[in-house]
């Protein structure tokens, strides 16, 4: 056994001004509701929700840890006031939403595709489809990234495409000239395509599932409903991003021969491909066979492990922290609903003279702005519940959730942005200029055409 003195000791760093500010905001979010709100139920629920939002937005603790604190604080503080509504069993059930099964199935599918090299094969195929054109390569890279982001996390999709392209653009290379501008455009294209690709499917982004879970009692949104609306939106935003990057970075002319070897797919890769296609078909035909998409996702995960396409050790590689973050977002929404806070806030907003169309625009812009600087899960969970009190329709929740994917202007806005920036050669303003344009275009599109498009897709 190693001597205790040989073990690494934890390192303590001096708190930064930002952390002191976050701690002050945390204390204020807890103390002020308890001092200023007379109703003890509302006061305690507001303190819990405020503390969770501060923790999520400041990230002074791991994001998933906030979920654990939420699940502990709710029965502790609200349970004595209403044991039936806020018992530990009830509160734990908030996060055990069927959409969590869908997200888990998506994670196992992503893990299997990565393990057998299927994602690398897709990335290399898209690169080979560029036909020697800079614009063609940019388009192929963005399409490939968006396709992968539809079925796996945007982090994995962006990172995999950048790894595939690294032989073409070595880290820190091309600091000036035409190749530097093209490299910037490709890195930004990967980031934006990964962000917008997640809108296309329910499992592509956490806010998507939060919206589906929030409106289960109003309207059951299945895969076919979501894709019918969100896939064209994704295609449009990726296309606008491509045009914008071509214009801003002067992308044109031929590209030197691109040789990126795709790994052999093998029998395991082909088996994963068959399961992927079968699962997608089952999700899209849910209205015909009436098997819930969550059940299909669990069956997929069980099959992947049963036939040894995934091993027990692979369970450690599943993004459990992300699953817990989504569970926290769902639980926060339930807290705002069950405590009556969402209804109270919605009533005050509904009583204003602002037309419903402007309120919808305000919620969309607010969700995009908050998501640009903080957790999109926290932003969507809070705003969806408040918004449903004003407009109890599935379309309102879906539009607010999709707005979370529009918050892309900063390096810190999304993990794909940070991954692209960390490759070198990008400045923060390289993200900000196209990012703000895309955010404005996306929010305007959702507000002006979203409800009509959703009704056309069968979502009220």
Automatic annotation (TrEMBL):
Compartment(s): Membrane
Key word Transmembrane helix present: yes
Membrane topology: Multi-pass membrane protein
InterPro entries linked: Cit_transptr-like_dom, SLC13A/DASS
Assigned keywords, A-Z: Membrane, Transmembrane, Transmembrane helix, Transport
GO molecular function: phosphate transmembrane transporter activity
Residue ranges of every copy of the Citrate transporter-like domain listed in the record: 53-397
GO cellular component labels: plasma membrane
Regions crossing the membrane: 20-37, 49-78, 98-118, 138-165, 185-211, 223-245, 265-284, 291-310, 357-374, 386-412, 432-454
The protein, known as: DASS family sodium-coupled anion symporter
């Amino acid at each position: 056994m190693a001597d205790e003195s040989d073990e690494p000791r934890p390192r303590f760093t001096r708190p930064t001004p930002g952390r002191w500010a976050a701690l002050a905001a945390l204390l204020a979010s807890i103390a002020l509701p308890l001092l200023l709100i007379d109703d003890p139920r509302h006061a305690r629920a507001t303190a819990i929700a405020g503390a969770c939002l501060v923790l999520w937005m400041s990230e002074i603790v791991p994001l998933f840890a906030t979920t654990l604190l939420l699940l502990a604080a709710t029965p502790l503080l609200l349970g004595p006031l209403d044991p039936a509504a806020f018992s530990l069993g009830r509160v734990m059930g908030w996060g055990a939403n069927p959409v969590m099964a869908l997200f888990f199935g998506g994670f196992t599918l992503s893990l299997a595709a990565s393990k057998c090299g299927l994602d690398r094969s897709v990335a290399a195929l898209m690169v080979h489809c560029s036909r020697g054109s800079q614009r063609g390569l940019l388009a192929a890279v963005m399409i490939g990234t968006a396709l992968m982001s539809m079925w796996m996390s945007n982090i994995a999709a962006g990172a995999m495409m950048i790894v595939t392209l690294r032989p073409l653009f070595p880290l820190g290379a091309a600091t000036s000239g035409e190749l530097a501008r093209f490299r910037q455009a490709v890195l930004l294209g990967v980031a934006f395509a990964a962000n917008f690709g997640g809108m296309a499917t329910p499992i592509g982004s956490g806010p998507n599932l939060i919206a589906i879970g929030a409106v289960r009692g109003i309207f059951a949104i299945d895969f076919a409903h979501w894709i019918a609306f969100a896939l064209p939106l994704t295609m449009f935003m990726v296309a606008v991003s491509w045009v914008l990057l071509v214009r801003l970075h002067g992308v044109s002319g031929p590209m030197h021969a691109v040789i990126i070897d795709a790994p052999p797919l093998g029998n395991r890769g082909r088996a994963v491909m068959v399961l992927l296609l079968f699962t997608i078909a089952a999700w899209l035909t849910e209205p015909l066979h009436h098997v819930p998409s969550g059940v299909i996702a669990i069956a997929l995960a069980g099959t992947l492990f049963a036939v040894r396409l995934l091993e027990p050790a692979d369970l450690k590689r599943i993004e459990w922290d992300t699953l817990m973050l989504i569970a926290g977002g769902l639980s926060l929404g339930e807290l705002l609903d069950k405590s009556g806070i969402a209804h109270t806030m919605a009533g005050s907003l509904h009583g204003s003279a602002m037309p419903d169309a402007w309120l919808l625009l305000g919620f969309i812009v607010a969700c995009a702005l908050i998501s640009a600087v903080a957790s999109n899960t926290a932003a969507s969970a809070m705003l969806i519940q408040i918004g449903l009190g004003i407009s109890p329709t599935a379309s309102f929740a879906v539009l607010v959730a999709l707005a979370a994917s529009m918050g892309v202007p900063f390096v810190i806005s999304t993990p794909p942005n940070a991954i692209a920036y960390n490759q070198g050669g990008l400045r923060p303003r390289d993200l900000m200029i196209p990012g703000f344009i895309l955010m404005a275009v996306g929010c305007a599109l959702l507000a002006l055409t979203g409800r009509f498009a959703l009704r056309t897709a069968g979502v009220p």
